[in-house]
UniProtKB/TrEMBL annotation:
It holds the Pfam family PUA_3. Residues 184-376 form the S-adenosylmethionine-dependent methyltransferase domain. Keywords: Cytoplasm, Methyltransferase, rRNA processing, S-adenosyl-L-methionine, Transferase. InterPro entries: PUA-like_sf (IPR015947), PUA_sf (IPR036974), RlmI-like_PUA (IPR041532), SAM-dep_methyl-trfase (IPR019614), SAM-dependent_MTases_sf (IPR029063). This is SAM-dependent methyltransferase. Its main location: cytoplasm. The lineage of its organism: Bacteria, Pseudomonadati, Pseudomonadota, Gammaproteobacteria, Pseudomonadales. GO terms for molecular function: methyltransferase activity; RNA binding. Residues 6-72 form the RlmI-like PUA domain. SUPFAM superfamilies: PUA domain-like, S-adenosyl-L-methionine-dependent methyltransferases. GO terms for biological process: methylation; rRNA processing. The keyword S-adenosyl-L-methionine applies.
Length: 398
């Protein structure tokens, strides 16, 4: 296959030579290689300003990130063969790390497959295609996954907003075999079922696996509040780890049905109380009712989706964590999590410190958590690191 060229402006190759995979539209020499000459999903040979080839890219001419490096070897464009190889490399890491086949199998750029996310639930796969290049090669993606993993079912969960920037339609569809509405998984020895068809994202959030595992020593025999609980990833594990009582708060009745479902799976239903409603309103009502907890977990959706949301988002994290601290007993544990890539860990730490001081409390930072190793960070791409989790002890100022 003969590929067209996409040429960069002078010095625009420095970031790519340092390991990055993205090309921005203002870095392209559009006089030599007009972006208008490409269709979304085309592959091209990326060239430095002097004409030296840098690798093969997938092109999205109408996006700010107009190209992503697929291979630095000109012999390997994106096809089934390359996909099989990259999937096998990713699989070897996950099989080394986890004793059950439940994990994020492919994490986009970090696994050198930009625009592709695959979550594995035993023998079911949920796949997100976030780039025009991956969408165009979806048949090859499916064939490669089936060849390597031999799943019972594969679901296209292509309903994310990331597709909008690529000019792609949103859809959810069974790609192969049979995919039930709820699929089984295991995390930290606790059994779950995830609603892959109707649930958020792929139906489950494997990224906090290691942080949830660290709950065990803090929750045994304790009263726990899980805010933004979704289907109980934190709360049900807290109960399974020996918590005496767990309150799960979520705005979605469907999600709370999942909490009850997963609590029953693990024989801890009698420990669980589900509260449907806005987390901030629920915290206000719990405080007015003089409810207090030994451990409060705050794992909200991203309050900061874009840089311009930073100020309002940080204020929301401050309000959330300060209110959560008010619900803690005198020697309480706060687990404060964030999935906002734009919120730096030091900023979250400062928010917690400011909240504690405002309430005249002392704070000890006990543990720092990040995304698990099935979400490996690409060192050249800060956007691949987004999960933060700070476990803190909140004490009276005495």
């Amino acid at each position: 296959m003969t590929l067209p060229s996409l040429r960069l402006k002078a010095n625009a190759d420095r970031r790519l030579r340092a390991g990055h995979l993205w090309v921005y539209s203002n870095e392209v020499d559009t006089a030599a290689t007009p972006l208008a000459g490409f269709a979304a999903g085309d592959q091209a040979i990326l060239e430095a300003a002097g004409g030296k080839p840098l690798g093969i890219v997938g092109v999205s001419p109408n996006n700010l990130i107009c190209a992503r490096l697929l291979s630095r070897d000109l012999k390997h464009s994106l096809d089934k063969s390359l996909l099989v190889h990259r999937i096998q490399v990713a699989l070897s890491l996950r099989e080394r790390l986890f004793d059950q086949p439940c994990y994020r199998l492919i994490y986009g750029d970090s696994d050198l497959l930009p625009g592709l996310v695959v979550d594995r639930f035993y023998d079911h796969l949920v796949v997100q295609l976030a780039s025009a290049t991956m969408e165009r090669n979806k048949d090859a993606v499916l064939e490669a996954l089936v060849q390597v993993l031999k799943p019972r079912g594969v679901l296209w969960k292509n309903d994310s907003s990331a597709r909008d920037a690529e000019g792609l339609e949103r859809y959810v569809d069974t790609a192969f075999g049979v995919v039930p509405e709820w699929v089984a998984l295991e995390e930290n020895g606790v059994k779950f079922e995830a609603p892959v068809l109707q649930g958020q994202k792929t139906g489950w959030f494997y990224d906090h696996r290691m942080n949830r595992a660290r709950l065990a020593p803090y929750v045994k025999g304790k009263r726990v509040l899980d805010l933004f609980s979704y289907i109980g990833g934190w709360g049900v594990q807290a109960a399974a780890f020996g918590a005496s009582e767990v309150f799960c708060v979520d705005a979605s009745a469907f999600a709370l049905d999942g909490v009850e479902r997963n609590a029953a799976l693990n024989g801890v239903a009698e420990k669980m109380t589900c509260v449907e409603g806005d987390a901030f309103e629920a915290m206000k009502e719990l405080k007015n009712a003089e409810e207090r907890f030994d451990v409060v977990i705050t794992d909200p959706p991203a309050f900061i989706k874009r840089k311009k949301d930073l100020k309002n988002g940080e204020a929301a994290y401050r309000r959330l964590n300060e209110t959560a601290m008010r619900l803690l007993n005198k020697d309480g544990i706060l687990v404060s999590a964030s999935c906002s890539m734009h919120l730096e860990e030091d900023h979250l730490q400062n928010i917690l410190l400011g909240s504690a001081r405002h309430l005249d409390r002392n704070i000890q930072l006990l543990e720092r958590g990040a995304q698990g190793p099935d979400h490996p960070v690409h060192p050249a791409i800060p956007e691949t690191r987004y999960i933060k989790s700070l476990t803190c002890r909140i004490l009276p100022n005495s």
